[in-house]
Input
Amino acid sequence: MKPLSLALLCAGLLLTGCTKTTEQQTELAVQDFVRNRVSDPKNYFPGKFKFSPYTKRDSLLYLAQMAQINGQPAPPAPTPADSVRIGTLVYHDYRDEMRNGVSVRDSGEYVVRPNGDVRILMAESIRRRRLQK
Output
């Protein structure tokens, strides 16, 4: 009976050791998203990733900035209840090598929802510049 228990314990540890963390799953989702949008998927070389929680409040503030940039009415102001996490904000830089050999460094800001859905955001630096105009 003990060898069977030991075998089951080892199998359980092996299976749980193979599961990816949320951060790893988020990174893979962003890599797939970007890889499908660069000049050639095999010429995508991922760089650094930086993760932070993304809440409904963050989403409403982003929408308010976009509305201001586009001259549209702002969405409702965030409330304390809007501090619920709805995803992960990912800052990612990468290199895209063109077919002619030219290498381009780029970066992006993405929100990854718990279901793996990836959305690209306008970079904060660009939003700030456009809000100042």
User: Anything to note?
Assistant: The first strand starts at residue 44 and ends at 55. Residues 4-11 have pLDDT under 50 and may be disordered. The helical segments are 2-18, 22-35, 56-69, 124-132. The chain has four helices and four strands.
